[in-house]
Amino acid sequence: MRLTVGQAIIRFLVNQYVERDGVEHRLITGAFGIFGHGNVCGIGQALLQNELDPQADGGEMPYIMPRNEQGMVNAAAAYAKTTNRMQTLMCTSSIGPGALNMVTGAALATTNRLPVLLFPSDQFATRIPDPVLQQLENQQTLDTSVNDAFRPVAAFFDRINRPEQLLPSLMHAMRVLTDPADTGAVVLALPQDVQAEAYDFPEEAFAKRVWHVRRPPAEPAAIERAAKLIASAKRPLLIAGGGVIYSEAAEQLRSFASATGIPVADTQAGKGAINHDHPAAVGGVGATGGDAANHLADEADLVIGVGTRYSDFTSASNTQFKNPDVRFVNVNVKPFDAVKNAGEMVVADAREALAALTEALSGYRVSEEYAGEVAEEKAAWEKRVEHHTHLGHGPLPAQTDIFGALNEMLDPDRGVVINAAGSMPGDLQALWRASTPEEYHVEYAFSTMGYEIPAAMGVKLARPDAEVVAIVGDGTYQMLPMELATIAQERLKVIFVLLQNHGFASIGALSESHGSQRFGTRYRMGDGEAHNAEGDLVPVDLAKNAESWGINVITATGVDGFKEAFAEAREATRPTLIYIETDLMGPNPPNSSWWDVPVAEVSRIDSTRQALEEHLVKKEAQRRYLNPPTV
Predict the structure, then answer these.
(1) Letter string b/e over residues 563-598, b meaning 16 or more CB atoms within 10 A of that residue's CB
(2) What is residue 631's predicted lDDT score, i.e. its pLDDT?
(3) Which sign does the torsion angle of CA 357, 84, 183, 286 carry?
(4) 616: which residues sit within 8 A by CB, 6+ positions away?
(5) How far apart, in Å, are the Cα atoms of 137 and each of 94, 297, 400?
(6) Which of 262, 272, 325, 494 could form a disulfide with 456 if both were Cys (CB 3.0 to 4.6 A apart)?
(7) Cross-strand bridge partners of residue 23
(8) Residues 239-255: pLDDT tens digits?
(9) Taking a C-beta distance cutoff of 8 angstroms, is the pair 579, 542 a contact?
(10) Which of 168, 201, 180, 143 is nearest to 5 (CA)?
C-alpha cells in the first residue's frame, strides 16, 4: 500500500485500540495540530485526506485547530487524565519554535505519568536544503536539532529518518502509551521531507490492533510481607496517590478502609479516590495538607503509599513522617516509585493489590483507641474547613470563600474542578471536599501555569456531559489564554472562574515568608525608574480580554455575587467566564507542615537573615526515610 509517511501515521492510528477489563476504546481519538512549513504538506495533508474520506483509512481522525503548541499538549494531557489514561490525543507541530513550544507540555505529561503522542516536525533528513528556516545549527554535529530537547522529558523518543523506520517506531510508541508503569509523552520527530515521502507499506500494518492494558497482580509473597507489616502496626496511615484513580481502584480503597479502619490521606493526584465523607478519609497530607492527615502522619509507625511517587509536597520535604520508627509499604505499578523510602515493595496494579491486601488482612482492624483518635482529628479538621471556606472576609473575599461556595454548588455527580498553579492548589488540597474520583482535577506534579484553560478543553472533549469548571488566577491566565478562542470555536460549554488579585499570591506569600518581601510578585505600575515600584494597579482588563476571545463574561462582586454568577453561568449555552476580585492578602488555611525552600545564607537584608534562622531550625527535622533491611 503506497502511502506517504504522514498518511501511514494517520491510517495506523485510527486502527489502534485499547482494552482493559473487557472495555475497548479507540486509543487516539483525535488530533490537535498547528501547521507550518514542517508539517502542513505532511501530516497536515494526511489529516485533510482523512477528513475528506475517513473510511478509506478505516476511521475518522477528528481534527481540532488550537492556538498554541503548549496549550494543545496540555489539553491532550488533561484528556488522558480524564479517561484514566485509556485514551489520548495526538499533537503535531511545525519545526523549530513550534516544536519547542511542546516541550513544556511533554514534561507535564511525563511527570504526571500521562500518555500524549507528539509529532514535532524536523529539519530535512536529506540535508539538501540546509540550513532551512527555523533550523538551529549545531557546529559540533549535523545530527542534532531542537527536537533533541524532548529526549529528557519524553517517556519514548525517536526520529524517523527513513520511511522504513516508521512501523517499528509506532509499535514502540503504542507500547509506551498503553504501559501503566512507563507511560508519558511519546515523541516521534518527523523530518519534513520524510513526512511527504511515499513508501510501499504492508497492508497488514493497518489492520485493527487492540493493546491490552495490563493489571499486574502482586506476588503472593509481597502481599504476605506487606500484610504482616500492616497487622503489626499500631498507627498505620494509607496515602492514596494518582495511581489509585488511574487504576479505577476507588471501590477497593473504600472497602480496604472500611474493613481495616486504617485512615486514608490523599495527595493532589489522589484526592477523590476515597469520598471525603467516608469515616476513614482524613484529607490532604503534606506541605499543603490539612491538620487531620498531617497530625496522623506525624506519628504514623507505618505509611502505606498506594500509587504515589512521594513528591516533596507529600513528604513535606522529608519532614512529614516524624516517628523515628516509621516504616513504609509501597504499592505501585512502577518499581521506580515502589522502592522510594526503601519501602516494602508491592509492584502491582493498585486495584489488584488493594483487593489482595483486604483479603490477607481479614479479621484485622485498628485499635479502638486509634480509631477514636482518627475520628477526633477528622471532626476537628472538618470544623476548620467549614470556617476557612466561610470566612466572610472583606471588603474583597478571600479565595477560600469562593472555593467554599463553588464546592457547595458544583454538581457532585457531573462536576469537575480544574486547577494547577499558584496558591490555589494548596488551598484546594486542604479544603476541597471531593465526592468522586472524577471531581478533582488538579495538575500538581509539574504545576504548570497556563494549564487550566487548555485543560478545560481537554476535559470537556473527554466528558461532553460534565460540568467543567476551571479556576484560574490572573497570573496563570496571562500565561496562556489563547485556547479560549479554540474553546469558543469548538462551542465547548465550560465555566472559568477568574480570580483577580493583581499579583502572584503563591510566590508572593512564599517570598514574604522567606525574607524576600514579595519582590516581583505584584502587578503595579512602575515610576519610570524603579521597575518594582508600588504604583497604581496595571490597567489591564482581563474580563474584556476574555470577552475578546469569544467568551461570555460575567463580572461578580463578593461571595453572594459569585453564587448568582455561577447559577447564571451554569444556565448559559456558551463558554462563560466569571470575573471576580479577591484579596491578594486573603488568609489561607493553617499550615501544619513544611516545604524546603532554601534561603540565602548571607544577606544584607534583615528579613532574609531572620528567615534563614527559621529555615535552619525547621530543616533539622529533615531526614531520609529508610526501612531497616529485611534479613
Answers:
(1) bebbeebeeeeebbbbbbbbbbbbebbebbbbbeee
(2) 46
(3) negative
(4) none
(5) 17, 52, 50
(6) 494
(7) 20
(8) 999 999 999 999 999 99
(9) yes
(10) 201
Instruction: Please state the pTM of the whole predicted model.
Output: 0.95
Angle between helices 558-571 and 399-409 (to 10 degrees): 40
Contact 54, 61 (CB under 8 A): yes
Cα separation, 552 vs 487, in Å, equals 11
Please report which helix (H) or strand (E) contains residue 513, including its range. helix 505-513
Q: Are 332 and 347 in contact (CB under 8 A)?
A: yes
Amino acid at 393: H
Mean pLDDT of 599-612: 87
**What phi and psi, each to the nearest 5 degrees, are found at residue 433?**
-105, 100
Backbone phi, psi, residue 112, to 5°:
-85, 0
Nearest to 146 by CA among 89, 110, 198, 103: 103
Judge contact between 3 and 12, C-beta under 8 A. no
3-state secondary structure of 279: coil
Q: Which of 481, 483, 496 is nearest to 540 (CA)?
A: 481
Candidates 341, 338, 360, 362; CA nearest to 349 is 338
pLDDT digits (tens, 9 = 90+) for 547-566: 999 999 999 999 999 999 99
Residue 210: which H helix or E strand, with range?
strand 209-212
Q: Take residue 399 and report the three cell numbers written for it.
A: 479565595
* Order of all β-strands in the sheet with 116-122: 63-64, 28-33, 88-93, 116-122, 185-191, 156-159
Can you tell me whether residue 88 is helix, strand or coil? strand
- In this predicted structure, the answer to whether residue 137 has a pLDDT above a threshold of 90 is no
Residue 515's φ and ψ, nearest 5 degrees, are: 85, 10
Among 404, 330, 252, smallest CA distance to 314 is for 330
DSSP string of 99-167?
HHTTHHHHHHHHHTT--EEEEEEES-SS-SS-SPTT----TT-SS--GGGGGGGG-SEEEE--SGGGHH
Helix pair angle (43-52, 5-13), 10° resolution? 50
CA distance 461 to 491: 11
Residue 262 in grid coordinates: 486504617
Instruction: Choose among 579, 576, 578: nearest CA to 549.
Output: 576
Q: Which amino acid is at 7?
A: Q
Question: Among 360-369, 459-468, 515-524, which stretch is predicted with the lowest mean pLDDT?
Answer: 515-524
Interval 410-419: pLDDT, tens: 998 999 999 9
Q: How far apart are CA 114 and CA 240, in angstroms?
A: 18
pLDDT tens-digit readout, 175-188: 999 999 999 999 99
Question: Could you give the residue ranges of the DSSP H alpha helices within 261-349?
Answer: 291-299, 335-338
398: left (phi over 0), alpha (psi -120 to 50) or beta: beta
> What Rg value do the Cα atoms of the chain yield, rounded?
25
Rounded to 10°, the helix 350-360/250-260 angle is 20
Cα–Cα distance, 84 to 77 (Å, whole number): 11
